[in-house]
Amino acid sequence: MTGGVRVWALHLAVLVALALAPLVVPPYHATNLARIMVLAVFAMGYNIAFGYTGLLSLGHALLLAAGMYATGLLVAHGGWTAGPALLAGALAGAGVAFVVGLLALRTTGAAFMIVTLMFAQAGYLTILYFGDLTRGDEGFTLAREARTLFGLDLVTDATRYSAALALFAAGLIGCLLLVRSRTGRVLVAVRENSERTRMLGYDPFRARLLALTLSGLYAGTAGAAYALLFGYVGASFATVQYSVLALLWVLLGGAGTVLGPLVGTLVMFYLVDFAGNLTDATLFVVGAALILLILFARTGLLGTLRARALAWLP
Amino acid sequence: MTKERDSALPRRTVLKGLGAGSALALAGGMPRYVQAQTSEPIRLGFQLHRTGIGAVYGRWYQRTTEAALKVLNEAGGINGRPVEIIFEDDGTDPKRGSEVFEKLAVQRKCDLVFGALFSHVVVGTAPRAAELRVPYLVCSEGHHVAAGLNRWTLQPGITDVRSQVISMAPWVSSNLGKKVTMIYPDYAFGFDHRDFFQEAMKAQGGEVIELIPVPPTETSFTRYLPRIPSETEVLYHVMVGPAVLTFVKELGEFYGTGAHPEIFGFIDSLEGISTESPGLEFLEGSHFWEGMPRYRQPDSTEFDAFYRKAVGVDDSGAAVGDPKDVSTYAHMFSCWETLFVIKKAMEAASYKGPDDRQAIVEAMEAMTTFADSREHPQGDKVFNGRTHQVFGHQFISKVVGGKLEVVQRTAIEDGFYPDAVDYTTMPF
């Protein structure tokens, strides 16, 4: 089997497994998987910026919230239907990322982290400031009848799962195409050695801006989808916690691997969930698991797998 | 011949019935089914703020609920069935709150879920409650239920903030002053106070002369205090979190030993904190709203005594044997009372299993009053089935010698306001 066929076979097999999952897992886990797939799209976006391009951002919650609020506000106050609102959410994420990138990408390393963190904090406070519209920290719900996409009722579990899977599949295939493309290789080159990439005739700033904008597109789409699929829009999604969560999911699954964000989001979700069954100190269990990860699998679960056995893993 | 055949059971049916009955009996199926209908525990889920910003409340909400559960089970449970409560941490986060609700309702097979306090967790969870068609009873005091969420979400254990605020206004206007300056957090919780208190003061012939919203990230208040107009008669403050200690200290430094306006605040800012703490001396002589008096009063009821003893709270509102472990007394009664409302509703609905969940909601909607009792130690209440919101007495307490002394108990009717929704007309 050639490398390309093997890669596509693996990723399509994952999608088929996810498509069949609701038939074999209990309903509780099916709904969890729908959530995980939406959040994994957010993590995939983070992975494009951090894993492939080396942009360690602490401001991705802003991009998630941009999509969520654009969609939520347009549906709740603008009377938009779900389809155009979802598109607006995706574009809002990309647009905010582009503008933030124009300014923040003048910095690198720790300064980039701080600047993106500040942008995200400003976004969070903006949501609180316009509390009359956004209901501030409390957030707001979307009416059941507004959560219909192309005639499909997103409130029912089966439709919700299918919509989450379709979104995740589009994100996964898009990501795979990107990282295997010439553009994707430029992003990795910028991550590995920016100056050498420039010497070869590429513009690292443009490459980083493209990566951040695509990352914002993913994050905004995930935020918009969360609002429509789960019916809630809230400022907590704009807090630094969600920027850190995206980073953790990617680190856990394997930064710079296409399936890493899904694996990281899935493992972290069930780590919290199972820990809750065993002890009151769930965060202690999560913390211990992350320490073990740093000690024994610094490149994440799939990163370690790639280093030890599957070198062809993208 | 024909008549005989009509009156007798067909032989084939009898044989089938005997066969099936024997099989069930041999397999133990029949007795187990009967058993399940009669004595299998009722399982309730509790969405607990064990971690996150609600952790202080969560600790006491769990203690109060476990105490109520013990009383409930000792008195025979619900419909003669024992009751179990499964506590699950939501991290005081709306996303996790929704996931926890799912886990409790679907995986742990709880008959209903209750217990959430923080508004964003309630609002984030409510859509899933309606989708799963599982009753969601919140102990939140937020105005969100009565403002309109969905038919499966109810608040039968504690009055909402709108009602609290408007029932305070007449007393504040008559006893403290008519010119009010409000200092409040610049987000939804503060906005409820801002909007409803202004409206209520206006109705009393008073006015709010200055609004001072404070961003939630603020750690020092010195730059806001000079904005308090000199003609202010009442300074109304609502602060949340540890910043209240800084706020009070800086307020004391700002006014020094000179004259200062009357001060009225909500105890939310001091839940879990002793009013006798160093740094809070400036609060001496000021007034607070309390949902239930933290310090036992001379006229406190026997029901309050029973409740304190059951939960393990002393006469000053701290844990028995640990004066530093101050309870969230003004709010936590809501868990106790909600559990007994659940009992009443399940018994009224002759609850047998998840198929009867809708009947629980309908039974609650039919409720009108709760009597002052061991089940409702905070006092008697009126329940509005149309808005799913309960209304009760509120308490105004004065800080005297570092302790809270009740100076006013409002009438339930003082907190009434026009209905914004009628859930009973909405589909399930």
What would you say about this model in short?
Chain A has helices at 3-24, 27-52, 60-76, 82-104, 109-129, 131-134, 157-179, 182-192, 194-199, 204-230, 240-253, 260-278, 282-296, 300-308, and strands at 140-141, 148-149, 152-153, 232-233. With 314 residues, chain A is mainly α.
Question: What does this protein look like?
Answer:
The complex is a heterodimer of chains A (314) and B (428). Chain A has 314 residues and is an all-alpha fold. Chain A has helices at residues 3-24, 27-52, 60-76, 82-104, 109-129, 131-134, 157-179, 182-192, 194-199, 204-230, 240-253, 260-278, 282-296, 300-308; strands spanning 140-141, 148-149, 152-153, 232-233. Chain A has one domain (3-253). In chain A, the strands form two sheets. Chain A has a two-stranded antiparallel ribbon. Chain A starts with a helix and ends in a 6-residue tail after the last helix. The mean pLDDT of chain A is 93. Chain B has three domains: 2-37; 39-159 and 331-392, Response regulator (Rossmann fold, 3-Layer(aba) Sandwich), CATH 3.40.50.2300; 162-290 and 397-406, Rossmann fold (3-Layer(aba) Sandwich). In chain B, 39% of the residues lie in helices and 18% in strands. Chain B has 13 helices and 17 strands. In chain B, the strands form four sheets. In chain B, strands 7-6-8-9-10-16-17 form a seven-stranded mixed beta sheet. A five-stranded parallel beta sheet of chain B has the order 2-1-3-4-5, with helices on both faces. Chain B has a three-stranded antiparallel beta sheet with strand order 13-14-15, with no helix packed on it. Chain B is globular. The relative contact order of chain B is 0.12. Chain B: Residues 41-400 form the Leucine-binding protein domain. Chain B: Belongs to the leucine-binding protein family. Chain B: This is Branched-chain amino acid transport system substrate-binding protein.
